[in-house]
Design a protein that fits this description.
Blueprint: H1 6-22, H2 28-43, H3 48-77, H4 82-88, H5 91-123, H6 138-154, H7 163-171, H8 184-192, H9 198-236, H10 255-287, H11 305-311, H12 314-325, H13 335-353, H14 357-375, H15 385-400, H16 408-419, H17 427-432, H18 440-464, H19 468-474, H20 479-494
């Protein structure tokens, strides 16, 4: 079930909110859990049991880890108690067992075919493929449960003894299928006590409408355009079938200018799609009087790759920093160790995004960029800010291309198309915009240039305009804002026919 769908907007969300507001505080978490399960069941019925199993394992894991930790604390207080000391040493083992169980599910469903294919290519073996579909949201709720294990083990949070409260935390439908990654510590108090206020509900509705606008009016329009360019390129290359996950650069279907437009459009689509979803998730959580962490903070305004990762997918960056980078030593053990830890983190980030060597390459490139930025920090102070932002944006733009390429051969062909020069005109592109075929040749180059500048205009607006968080902080809500929101929702509904799935559902 998509947030940007009639089913969700007309039926599911209103029904959930009405029931949620009318029920007593002590059963709100139960309503939230049941609503979240129905939400997941709607789109992934065959994997709903897997979700419940993960929740049950996470709940038992937290209780067992806390039990072992308490015994260890008792032993430390009384060293003479050798029996207690022996039993208390198993806390790390318990953490390891439950982490392996939870992480093992992710590895099986997401990486088994990738591992089997890699082994077959390297060793020449014939390991059979599992060929099983990836459960939606498994990467997100798996990381949440693992963060819960570690926090309980470290004593940063108490294990949840109420199964319904824990289940509500893991399965919260606003963030269940595409994040952000929420630590239990950040919502534990709100799960126990929260009050519904009309002010918070109104702010949540405004944030949701903002995200819906980003997703439907901007991201989906860009997605349709990107797919059109991609299909034209593939048709010109005389491929046997349209490849929906890659960019084929053979031939001159869209030309160099077309590939630049395609790259910029995809970069914008990815941002508006994911940030739009995050805004909708935050908005819904506010309506439920829960606070989800901010996941985006104008990432394309960054002046370096380091700053970019402080602004893009903030919850994932925070998770990798807290649970991988810092335990490895962070930046406390010298520059060489810092650079190695940075590379490990970004290799993990790459493989988290997708089971493909292309994602590993993407993570490695960002890791190298991070290392170079840190190593050359003192030499970059004299560089003009506009140049630093431009170089950062260009790097981000080119690395996003890897998300849509199937292998290194295809990536090489794409970059060759970027650099070879020339403008190729394809009638299908202009017919997409309703331009008559007999006028294409007359105005083709003009239309191409205008198209490029249109995409650049959206990018410039993105760089200078306040983001949703900044706008929400400055806005004082009036009655007429409700009518504006209603108009935006109506406009979005008219565009539902072209709604695509969220990009990060694939991760």
């Amino acid at each position: 079930m998509l947030f940007s769908s009639i089913t969700f907007l007309y039926y599911f969300l209103p029904a959930v909110l009405v029931i949620y507001y009318l029920t007593p505080a002590k059963v709100k978490n139960l309503i939230l859990f049941l609503a979240s399960f129905v939400f997941y069941l709607w789109g992934e019925p065959k994997y709903s049991v897997l979700l419940l199993f993960s929740v049950a394992v996470g709940y038992m894991g937290g209780r067992c880890i806390e039990y072992q930790r308490q015994k260890k604390c008792v032993c430390a207080a009384d060293p003479a108690d050798r029996s207690g000391k022996y039993k208390g040493r198993h806390d790390r083992l318990v953490v390891g067992i439950f982490t392996a169980m939870t992480l093992g599910l992710l590895v099986f469903f997401k990486y088994m075919d990738f591992l089997a294919d890699s082994v077959n290519r390297i060793l020449g073996t014939h390991v059979s493929m599992v060929q099983i579909a990836l459960p939606v949201g498994i990467s997100f709720y798996t990381f949440q449960i693992i963060s819960y294990y570690v926090d309980v083990y470290r004593g940063e949070v108490a294990a949840e003894h109420n199964f319904v409260d824990f289940a509500a935390y893991v399965t919260m439908f606003p963030q269940l299928i595409a994040g952000p990654i929420v630590r239990f510590q950040s919502v534990q108090a709100e799960l126990k006590h929260r009050e519904i206020t009309w002010e918070k509900t109104g702010e949540g509705a405004a944030r949701f409408v903002c995200g819906l606008c980003k997703k439907v009016l901007i991201a989906d329009s860009l997605a349709t355009f990107v797919q059109t360019l991609q299909n034209i390129s593939e048709t010109a290359a005389k491929t046997e079938a349209v490849v929906t996950t890659g960019i084929r650069a053979e031939g001159a279907g869209i030309g160099t200018l077309g590939y630049w437009v395609l790259a910029l459009a995809f970069m914008l689509q990815l941002y508006y799609d994911f940030s739009g979803y995050s805004d909708m998730a935050i908005g819904i959580s506010w309506m439920l009087n829960l606070d989800l962490p901010v996941n985006f903070d104008s990432p394309y305004k960054a002046y370096s790759v380091v700053e970019f990762w402080k602004r893009w997918h903030i919850s994932l960056t925070g998770f990798l920093t807290k649970y991988i980078y810092i335990p490895l030593g962070g930046s406390r053990k010298g520059n060489l160790r810092t650079y190695c830890n940075t590379m490990i983190v970004f290799l993990c980030s790459g493989i988290w995004h997708g089971a493909s060597w292309m994602f590993v390459l993407w993570g490695a490139l960002h890791g190298v960029a991070m290392v170079l930025t840190k190593a050359l920090k003192r030499y970059g102070e004299w560089i003009p800010r506009i140049l630093k932002r431009s170089v950062t944006l260009l790097f981000i733009n080119f690395t996003w291309i890897i998300f849509r390429t199937a292998d290194l051969k295809e990536l090489r062909e794409v970059f060759r198309a970027f650099l070879k020069g020339g403008i190729s005109i394809n009638p299908d592109l202009f017919q997409f915009f309703g331009i008559a075929g007999n006028r294409i040749g007359e105005y083709a180059i003009l239309y191409s240039i205008l198209l490029l500048f249109s995409v650049i205009g959206i990018l410039v607006f993105l760089l200078i305009a306040p983001n949703a968080k900044e706008a929400a902080e400055k806005m004082k809500y009036k009655v007429w804002h409700g009518f504006v929101a209603a108009g935006i929702i109506a406009l979005c509904i008219l565009h539902f026919s072209g709604v695509s799935s969220f990009v990060y559902f694939n991760f």
